[in-house]
Amino acid sequence: MKKISIKELILYILIGINLLIFILFIILFKNTVSSNVESVVPPDVRGKNIMEASKILSEKNFKIVIGGILMDRKKDFLLVLDQNPLTTKVPIGSSIILWINMPASFAKVPDVRYKDMGEALNILERAGFVVDFAGNKEGYVVKQVPQANIYMEKGGTVLLYTFTTSSYGNTPESTYTSEEE
């Protein structure tokens, strides 16, 4: 049998101690994670309006995420049509994704900034909005109110601010007066 030197013995002892520490760390980590996280089935909020659904989920410490907007003329405005997860246990504090109904009389405001006025007018009128102008009806759109990508009732007014080049000396002429966008 081969005799083990002191250096080898110390090395084996250190490896053994590291292995024990690693095993203890895994056991403690497992106990910490499993004891702190309580999993529950989120309440079913389908069929409720968005305000009521938000209140119910918030009281149970869930976060709400709007996952999509569906257009259904047969359903009430801002009604929760579906949710995910529905019957799966999830940790408290998880995000619950809701899909809500938006009546067909609402539409998303398109982004018409940096388009010429004729093109912007066509896009907004096709989407069902009334267009109003601040200043010139020619040139390029530099700002719109309301901003793009919000939902607004069809027939609502979108105000456009324009930028034109004056025919006298090519000096810029703008109807947009604010520094912010």
TrEMBL record:
Keywords, comma-separated and alphabetical: Membrane, Transmembrane, Transmembrane helix
Gene3D superfamilies membership: 3.30.10.20
Domain PASTA residue range list: 103-164
TM annotation in the entry: 9-29
Coiled-coil spans in chain: none
Protein name: PASTA domain-containing protein
Annotated organism of origin: Dictyoglomus thermophilum
